[in-house]
Each structure stands twice: as structure tokens, then as C-alpha cells.
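Contributing new records

If you add data, match the layout below exactly. Sequence lines come first and carry their own label; structure lines follow with theirs. Keep one chain per record. Anything else will be rejected by the validation script.
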Amino acid sequence: MTQTSDNVTWLTQAAYDQLKAELEHLSGPARAEIVAKIEEARQEGDLKENAGYHAAREDQGKLELRIRQLTQILETAKVGEAPADDGVVAPGMVVTIAFDGDPDDTLTFLLGSREGISSDLETYSPQSPLGRGVAGKRSGDDATYELPSGKLASVKVLDVKPYQG
């Protein structure tokens, strides 16, 4: 799964199905379980000093946040195949770069979103400084991006290929 610059999320069919199943579980049985835990903890009395109640409420907040995240992802999802193997850095591509042109200081990463990805690859968002810096580049191209310190970093794109997850 990857995100494009216009906030459409590209998903493989498998990733879409996985996220949809997770949303259905969280919205149904998981939500009902949390509500039951809260009600059970409420029956214990004083809510100010009720650790079980506060833990259940915290779990409910996390659950509702995840439900909102999944809903947003699925609402903007575009289900399709991996991007074309045209050698251009874009969402859904695995990119290998060398920092400051040093072939011994490299990083291979997936340009996309962490949602629905079960990979050992690091994942960088297309909206991240590195993602914006390498977008549209090809193997052999140089790119720069701004570090959190405000300094510019230089990288050389060594390889670009579609994610085969």
C-alpha cells in the first residue's frame, strides 16, 4: 500500500481486504468488548480511583482512533496493481539510495505507507522530506532534501523497482 500526493491511498487487493477485515472486527466485536469492560468496571464503584475503568477508557480511545484511521484509509483507497516498472521513484516503489554519493552508505526503503505492509523494509511517506526529494527521480539521479535541522542532505538514487510484497 502506498500514498500518492493527492491523498489517494494505493492498495493491493490483499492489503485492502486485510484493512477492511480489521475495521469490521474493531467496529463490531472489539468495540462491544471494550464497552462491556467499561460497564463492568463502572459497577465497581468510585470512578476516580478505578484503575480498571480508566484502563478500559484508554483502550476505547485507542480503538476509536484506529477505527477512524482505517475508515479514512479505506475511503481514499484505490485498489490496483503495483506501479509500473518504469524506473521512476513513485509510491509503491522500493528505492535504494546512497547518502552523499557514498556507495557504502546506502538505504533501501519502500516509498509508501506502513498500513497493510508486512515487510522488513523501512517505509518512508511520499510526503516526508526524503520522499519528496526523491520523487520522480531515476536510477543515477542526484536528489537533495531538507533535514529536521534545516540542513540539506544529498543522495544518489541507485535502484528503483516495484514493491513485490
